[in-house]
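Exam prep: given the inputs below (a chain plus glutamic acid), describe the expected output before reading on.
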Amino acid sequence: MEKVIKLSQIKNAAQEAYNEAKGITGGKNANYIPYLANIDSNLFGLSVTLLDGTCINFGDTEYKFGIESVSKVPTAILAMIQHTPEGVLEKIGADATGLPFNSIFALLLENDHPSTPLVNAGAISACSMVAPQGDSEDKWNAIVKNITELCGSAPQLIDELYMSETATNFNNHAIAWLLKNYNRIYDDVDMSLDLYTRQCSLGITSSQLAIMGATIANKGLNPVTKLQVFDEAIAPKITSMIASVGFYQHTGDWLYTSGIPAKTGVGGGVMGVMPGLFGIAAFAPPLDDAGNSVKAQAAIKAFMNKLELGIFKGDTVKIIND
Ligand code: GLU
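Solution:
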């Protein structure tokens, strides 16, 4: 079916979704990273970026929060740019784990394979793949440049978060060394883990994440800056990874109820990709038991349901100005 949606309908749906989700209580800030435990739990923002570059924002959409695991998406893209999607499939994989983001068990079960760049193990492995090999600063600059191009503006390291994570990331040390044991780390182990920890500590806004989502939805062409950030062949690859594991062990429930591939982070951010239509992002610190923002999930789901959209609906959707 061909479905026509007016720009005003999209703006109204975003406003209503924001208003409804704002009243939702429940969830708790991540407490295993001290910095995140102390962020104001009432912060909340919702952003949508359409593929003509229109940006719609409600609430705290310029607040810089910890990008955390949403950073796994841009670095997976960078690994694909530098090593091709096939190279990433061969070195890391593209399988859902069905287990929590930091699962060591997943790595053992997979029998030496990190599964996907969108869980901790695969993300540390992806950081190790980033070129140029052996040079921490150049690798870091490549990671930040890529995020900057995807968002159209630079993220900013939150030093306090970086120190907080570095002082407490013992589980990730275990994962990194297990990866080394399985020959799934392609550079220095400590450097790769440090790059992963640093990228998780980047401050980002929901408006920046919505633009990143829109760049992916637009086959690598940033709709705001008009820069072609990555080859269009990468878009369906990264979107399939987001769809299969973006919410960790709750990914199936998420896709079933929301209809949109999305990636979460324990900083409270969620970034959704609606191929050919828009990117969407929401941010609110309180999380559910799997580490996914309660309000951000509610807002994105409400937006999708109000517009009766979903990647599996089979509709051809056209957005028109009114
Ligand atoms: N830096 C966090 C960690 O490695 C990210 C987790 C997440 O956002 O899911 O534990």
